[in-house]
Amino acid sequence: MKTKICNVWTKHTAQLIVVFAVLLALFGSSGCQNPSPPRLTAEDRRSDVEFLAQWARDYHPCVEVASKARGLPDYEELLPKYMDLAEQAETNEAFLHVVWGYFTLIRDSGHGYLLPEDMLLTYMSDSRRRGTKGLSDIPWVQFREATYWAKLHKKSHAHAPFRINREGEDYFTSEDWSSKGKRIPGGAQIIRINGMSCSEYKDYLKRETALRYVAGDADRQTEPLLVMNEGPGFRGWDVSFRLPDGSEFDRFVPRREGYKDTSRFMNWRKENCKCVELSNEVGYVRIKLMIDEYSESDRNKIRRFLEKSKGRYKKLIIDLRHNGGGSTFYTDDNLIRPFLNEPLVYKLISGIKRKFLEDDLFFVRSGCGAWETAVDEVPPPEGFDPNRWIFYEISREVHPLKRYVFEGDIYVLMDRKSASATEKYLDAVKRTGLATLVGQRSSGALCGYIIAPVVRLPASGMIFRMEADLNVNPDGSFNELVGVQPDVELPPCPLPNRADRETLLKDAWIKAVINGLNSP
């Protein structure tokens, strides 16, 4: 016992030493201080925008396809404009807004974002531990620069102290919120912001704030509604609410710094996985994210829940709405393998620009590699130059794990914020018929052949995560453009604000499954 305790203590001590060394290297002896602002010339700023466009030209798989399919502006035609804007930027913050605005067009499909501070630390630590080419050789000081931009980007965003649900063009509070002794109940409609209607306020944001630099789909940025820091001295919003009883009430809503998806339900301080018995014949499992850290405990929770039912459930609802992904190992081990009696075999196709492989850029193979039986080159789809593109057919054979006590039909709830590793699971379900997919199409950021690489702008030191592969759906469409399509499409509905039986039974999608959706 003593030896075991010592080993655990030694392991944790070593981990703490590594973390401390990383922090010390990143921030120096005065770790509590912010990184120094980079000093950029006009030519530095122009060259970074040009570098971003060149990276897209050489390696990004989606930007050209998305432009043609969605009617978006051509990033090449906009390049001179954004190089000029970058050159004219008078502050680092203005320059960041220009770069981020141009980047929104390039990353309109698939993965793509400025790496936040916590992810920068994780990426750097992991790459140095594994000696990954392309990251482990970047000097620590350059990650200090990246941290500066990540913090600056965070300051440009803001969110309300309560969560918000959208229903069509209307917005509602997702939960109770109290201010100065007055309770604004969940379900209250937001009818005016700073004297403007919601649509007028969104137009104002796109016209007057950093969103004016967005070259891609600006509506995606305003979906959470209360989402932007409007400038120096900005403290929050004057909001008019219409309460459920029809009365109206005005209140000042203080802003919180940073971006937060305020429509996500279930408190992050509580469990990642929630299991609820909806009726004697229907079970319900809600998963927030596919996180390896929670994989075993979540699997045990689901197993105990289904064992307690003694096999009486005829339907099991797995709710993956707003699940932004995480690990494909989590999805395989928790949502596929324990439902199998025999190996599950299927194939998928993913394409990459040849130059990406020829230049040996940094990337990480996705979790699908654990169950691959073959990776074979196949002819590109029509319209793709085989001299520029290489497509692979990936064969998978997922083996059973100790089976859950369940023999009924599985229904998976999905929406446009179901993404990445979650989409990888939805794609597997679509190809194999393991469950019935219900709701709205997914995000279009499937975690396919390659996990998106990082891109560092050479002058400023900004580090982005970008897309690397183009994934083909079973019907020949591209996931990055249309996502995974549900088997049964339902009208949009707000997420429940709680994961208890009474609340869930009021949800329109859950009621649809209970009242008669049959497995195709």
Task: Please render the helix and strand layout as text.
Layout (H helix, E strand, L loop, with lengths): L1 H26 L14 H18 L3 H8 L4 H14 L3 H15 L6 E2 L2 H14 L9 H16 L2 E2 L4 E4 L2 E4 L3 E3 L2 E3 L4 E5 L4 H11 L9 H5 L13 E7 L5 E7 L1 E2 L15 E5 L4 E6 L4 H18 L5 E5 L8 H9 L7 E10 H5 L5 E2 L6 E7 L10 E10 L10 E6 L6 H12 L3 E4 L10 E2 L2 E3 L6 E3 L4 E3 L6 H4 L5 E2 L11 H4 L3 H7 L6
Parallel strand pairs: 12-13, 13-18, 18-19, 19-24
Antiparallel strand pairs: 1-22, 2-10, 3-4, 4-7, 5-6, 7-8, 8-9, 11-12, 14-17, 14-23, 15-20, 16-17, 21-22
Structure commentary:
With 520 residues, the protein is of the alpha+beta class. It has 3 domains: 34-155, no CATH class; 158-257, PDZ domain (Pdz3 Domain, Roll), CATH 2.30.42; 273-514, 2-enoyl-CoA Hydratase, Chain A, domain 1, CATH 3.90.226.10. It is built from 16 helices and 24 strands. The strands form 7 sheets. Strands 11-12-13-18-19-24 form a 6-stranded mixed β-sheet, sandwiched between helices. The longest helix is centred in the first third of the chain and has 26 residues, at 2-27. The model is unreliable at 1-32 and 130-134 (pLDDT under 50).
